[in-house]
Each structure stands twice: as C-alpha cells, then as structure tokens.
Design a protein that fits this description.
By secondary structure, the chain is an alpha/beta fold. Helix content is 40%, strand content 17%. The protein binds nicotinamide-adenine-dinucleotide and uridine-diphosphate-N-acetylglucosamine. The site of nicotinamide-adenine-dinucleotide has 27 residues, from helix 1, helix 5, strand 5 and strand 7. Uridine-diphosphate-N-acetylglucosamine binds next to helix 6, helix 7 and strand 8.
C-alpha cells in the first residue's frame, strides 16, 4: 500500500484515478487549485468508494507548500495530472501554459527532491510524437515537432524529467502518453465537466445530444481517411485510471524512466463516433461539416504492444462502454458538478 499525492485529482482523469487507487486500498491526498476541477467531485468519489480522499486546495507551483504536504502527510509517490490542456487556448496564452505545465512540474520536482520523494508519474500526451510521425506511434520513436505551446510544454517536461532521472538514479519517472480518454465512471457520479464550451469531441457530442447545444461541427471531411474525417484512438477513462494504478504499483518501485502509450490501438473516425453514439444511446446528434480545425492531424493511434508485453495491461472496455458511460454521466448531471 502506498500513499499518493495526486495533483489535479479534482479534474477529469485525476478523479477517476483516485477512485481506482482508493479501491485498491492506497491512500490519497489530492492537491488541486480548482482552476478546472471541482471540490464536489471529491464527495462523489466518497459516494463511489466509501472513502473521502484528503483534499488540499493549492497550486502545484507553490514548491514550499508542496514540500510541506509531502513531508507532513508522509507521501511516497506522486501522480501529476495538474495542468492546462486546451490546445487552442495555449496558442493565445503561451506564457500561462508554460508557467503551469512546465514551471508547475519543475516546482513539484524541487519539492519532491527536498522531501526525498522520488516516485513520479507524469501525464504526457500522444501529441509529443509530433506532426510528422508515422502511425501507429511507438514509444521508441523520438519526440517530434509539436504544433502548439500545449504540446511543446509536454515535450519539454518529458525531457527534463528524463534528465532528472539520469542525474539521480534513485528516481522512478513514468511518462504516460495518453491517446484520447473519454467516458466516465459507470456509476455516473463522476465524469468530464469542461468549464465553458468543450474543445474535445465527446463532451460536445453529449451536450448536443441532450439539447444544450444545437449542432456539432465536424471539423473537415477531406482528410486522408476512409470517410474523410479524422481518426483517433479513444480509450475509456477507467481503463486509463487502472493503467495508472498498475504503473504506480509495478514501475514506482523500479528506478529509471518508464515510457508507455495508453490507448486501445484502434482508430475511429469522427463520423463513426457520432453514428455509434446514436446507435448505442438511441439519441440523435445533429451535425454539420465545417472547415478543418487548425492543427488537427488526419489519423493517429497507439502501438500498445509495449505495455501489453511488459505490464500485461490492455484496455478492456470497448466503444459501447465508453459512449454509454459518457451519456449516463451527461444525463445524470446535465450541469456537470454544479447540480
Ligand atoms: P482537467 O483539466 O480535468 O484536470 C486538471 C486538474 O488540474 C484540474 O482539476 C485543475 O483544477 C488542476 N490544476 C490546473 N492547474 C493547476 C495548478 N497550477 N495547481 C494545482 N492544480 C491545478 O484535465 P484532465 O483531462 O484530467 O487532464 C489531466 C492531465 O492529463 C493534464 O496534464 C492533461 O494535459 C493531460 N492529458 C489529458 C488528455 C485528455 O484528453 N483529457 C490527453 C493527454 C494528456
Ligand atoms: C486534442 C489535442 C491534444 C490533446 C487532447 C486532449 C488538438 C490538435 N489536439 O486532441 O493535443 O492532448 O485534445 O486535450 O487539439 N472534433 C470535431 N468537432 C468538435 C471537436 C472535435 O469534429 O467539436 C474532431 C477533431 O477535429 C478531431 C477529433 O474530433 O479530429 C477529436 O478531437 P479532440 O477530442 O479535440 O481530440 P484531439 O484533437 O485528438
């Protein structure tokens, strides 16, 4: 049993991972500044697990405070989700993105060093493979040319965490490259609750389906794919959460850098997502084809053989589960955490 500090644990992926850690009898302290998270989410976690994680309201860039938490709460491992994640916003606010994502992770590492906590799992992204990488993406490929400050911030952090691990062989650093997490906990108690207009496909689909938004814009149908719309590797957020728990347990005690893709290895187009969502949930999703969105790639998906062979992890939930669970969350919580 470990005691984890989960930064960003009141957000989407963090909250699902906290559920999985508590279910496996680990102890959890959540640090979140609620920039995009919800304190009520922690009560929902308690409803699911019967255990309320400890919560500290604070900023990951506050190294003194983080060091105090690590020492006082006797933390042995950190899972670092806290960050900003909207690609288009990052183009308009690069300094904010580098500050939270890069400086935030630097501050966290300094605090960890001070408190002698040397096990870290970092939320990276498939975006670090860059705009020219061949598909499917393999962990052995180099980090490529990213097209926006968000992607660059993830690549920079991957680099300095690797340097940190080389400088002190006691560190265990896991760099987890997520593909496209969607869905929600099957209870419908926690899920993705974007503040404002959603950037990502699934929250937009569910908000159109429930009537909060009129129509979904499909960004381009002239890509080099079977039906012309972009293809992505969508994975269930609970599979992702289980992946974190497994990696924490198996890689945490092993010094070095551990790099894994977390996806299903199966690309699905935007039109297929809409069609499948309508079919499994028996609800209609009006859409219209619009111009391409800047920065979108035709298709990318994960090669998942490394994590399958080394850790025996593979995504267990299919598209039906992802889309049904996302819809249940939306129906039960039309206004997200504010209802
Ligand atoms: P999210 O916005 O739901 O969660 C991030 C959490 O971090 C929020 O609760 C927010 O309040 C908190 N936070 C932000 N800045 C903070 C700060 N300075 N100090 C303390 N807390 C802070 O996002 P998510 O989808 O759960 O993503 C989690 C991580 O995974 C992020 O680092 C993101 O970049 C990465 N990621 C997400 C996706 C995705 O599709 N959701 C894909 C690849 C990588
Ligand atoms: C995006 C980011 C990625 C980030 C991830 C999680 C870009 C280029 N990439 O991934 O770096 O890690 O979010 O935050 O922004 N789509 C529509 N209509 C919509 C929304 C999306 O057609 O209203 C399409 C997009 O064009 C894309 C697909 O749906 O083809 C998936 O989009 P999205 O959910 O935003 O994920 P990514 O773009 O893959």
């Amino acid at each position: 049993m470990s005691k984890f500090l989960v930064t960003g644990g009141a957000g989407y992926i963090g909250s699902h991972t906290v559920v999985e850690l508590l279910k496996s009898n680990h102890q959890v302290v959540v640090l979140d500044n609620l920039a995009n998270g919800y304190e009520s989410c922690l009560r929902r976690i308690a409803q699911i697990t019967g255990k309320k994680p400890e919560f500290v309201l604070g900023d990951v860039r506050d190294a003194e405070k983080v060091a105090r938490i690590l020492r006082d709460k006797r933390i042995d491992s950190v899972i670092h989700f806290a960050g900003l994640k909207a690609v288009s916003e990052s183009v308009n606010k690069p300094l904010e993105y580098y500050d939270v994502n890069v400086h935030g992770t630097l501050a966290l590492c300094k605090a960890m060093k001070k408190a002698r906590v040397k096990r870290l799992i970092f939320s990276s992204s498939a975006t670090i493979y860059g705009v020219e990488a061949p598909v499917p993406y393999l962990e052995s490929m180099p980090r490529g040319k990213t097209s926006n400050p968000y992607g660059e911030s993830k690549a920079v952090v991957e680099r300095f965490l690797t340097d940190l691990s080389h400088s002190d062989p006691d560190w265990s650093v896991s760099l987890l490259r997520y593909f496209n997490p969607i869905g929600a906990h099957p209870s419908g108690f926690i899920g993705e609750a974007p503040k404002g207009i959603p950037n990502n496909l699934l929250p937009f689909i569910t908000q159109v389906a429930i009537g909060q938004r009129e129509v979904l814009s499909v960004f381009g149908n002239d890509y080099k794919t079977e039906d012309g719309t972009c293809e992505r590797d969508y994975l269930h957020v609970m599979d992702l959460a289980e992946g974190h728990r497994l990696i924490a347990e198996q890689c945490g005690p092993k010094p070095g850098v551990h790099i894994y893709n977390l996806g299903t290895g199966k690309p699905v187009s935007v039109l297929k997502m809409i069609e499948h969502f309508e079919k499994v949930n028996k609800v209609s999703v009006p859409f219209r084809i619009e111009d391409r969105r800047d920065g979108d790639l035709d298709a990318f998906w994960a090669d998942v053989s490394k994590i399958e062979h080394e850790l025996n992890w593979h995504a267990e939930r299919g598209l039906d589960d992802m889309l049904k669970d996302a819809w249940r969350w939306q129906l039960q919580n039309p206004d997200g955490y504010s209802c």
